[in-house]
């Protein structure tokens, strides 16, 4: 069985909200589902997968993909992963192994970084996903459809984990304008 759903888009597009909805609407019991997020994501409540608007489900924090194995029990039928872009390439192997054991995987994350480049392992995840759900946000400047994440602070750090205090969703026109200002 190969069942891997990938939810992706820019910041504030509703990726984690969709992940939580899929978790909540699953026909499996909570004891048959495992949800994880990267250890480095310490926003909101640490032991939960959280949305910017306050929705949440229980979530285990792991630092590397292999740490999923001890969390798996015989009853696990589905694994939900948030902020998947922060994990190493080993996550590709882990997802394949989970699928080969009949475990459905649902993952959410940013497909592009704030400079518009592929984020981490995302190109590989897109290739292996059996279902791809691309979400868009609303441009903070004009209200049009947004597919880009704009960083409001002047930092070249790739991994700067934050929320609306540092990031906004932007349409291509306003994202490009924001890049020009930073240059």
- Tell me the helix content: 10-25%
* Second CATH tier, the architecture: 3-Layer(aba) Sandwich
Counting DSSP H or I runs of 4 or more residues, the number of helices is 4
**CATH class categorisation:** Alpha Beta
Radius of gyration: 16 Å
Arithmetic mean pLDDT: 88
Structural class: alpha/beta
Strand content: 25-35%
Taken together, the total number of domains comes to: 1
Strand order of the largest sheet: 5-2-6-7-1-8
Would you identify the CATH H-level superfamily?
A: P-loop containing nucleotide triphosphate hydrolases
Q: Note poorly predicted spans.
A: none
Count of strand segments: 12
Give the topology, please.
Elements: E1 4-9, H1 15-25, E2 33-38, E3 48-50, E4 56-58, E5 60-62, E6 78-81, H2 90-100, E7 104-110, H3 122-128, E8 131-135, E9 137-138, E10 145-146, E11 148-151, E12 167-170, H4 172-182
Parallel strand pairs: 1-7, 1-8, 2-5, 2-6, 6-7
Antiparallel strand pairs: 3-4, 9-10, 11-12
Task: Describe the model.
By secondary structure, the chain is of the alpha/beta class. It has helices at residues 15-25, 90-100, 122-128, 172-182, and strands at residues 4-9, 33-38, 48-50, 56-58, 60-62, 78-81, 104-110, 131-135, 137-138, 145-146, 148-151, 167-170. The chain has a single domain, classed as P-loop containing nucleotide triphosphate hydrolases (Rossmann fold). The protein has 4 helices and 12 strands; from the N terminus they run E-H-E-E-E-E-E-H-E-H-E-E-E-E-E-H. The strands form 4 sheets. A 6-stranded parallel sheet has the order 5-2-6-7-1-8, sandwiched between helices. The model has no long low-confidence stretch (mean pLDDT 88).
């Amino acid at each position: 069985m190969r069942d891997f759903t990938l939810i992706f888009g820019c910041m504030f597009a509703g990726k984690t909200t969709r992940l939580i909805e899929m978790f909540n609407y699953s026909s499996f019991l909570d004891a048959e589902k495992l949800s994880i997020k990267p250890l480095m994501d310490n926003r909101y409540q640490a032991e939960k997968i959280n949305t910017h608007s306050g929705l949440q489900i229980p979530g285990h924090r792991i630092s590397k993909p292999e740490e999923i194995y001890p969390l798996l029990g015989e009853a696990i039928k589905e694994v939900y992963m948030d902020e998947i872009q922060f994990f190493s390439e080993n996550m590709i192997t882990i997802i394949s192994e989970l699928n080969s054991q009949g475990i459905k995987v649902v993952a959410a994350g940013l497909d592009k970084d704030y400079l518009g480049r592929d984020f981490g392992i995302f190109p590989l995840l897109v290739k292996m996903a059996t279902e791809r759900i691309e979400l868009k946000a609303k441009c903070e400047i004009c209200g049009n459809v947004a597919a880009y994440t704009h960083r409001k602070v002047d930092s070249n750090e790739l991994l700067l984990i934050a929320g609306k205090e540092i990031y906004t969703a932007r349409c291509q026109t306003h994202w490009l304008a924001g890049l020009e200002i930073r240059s």
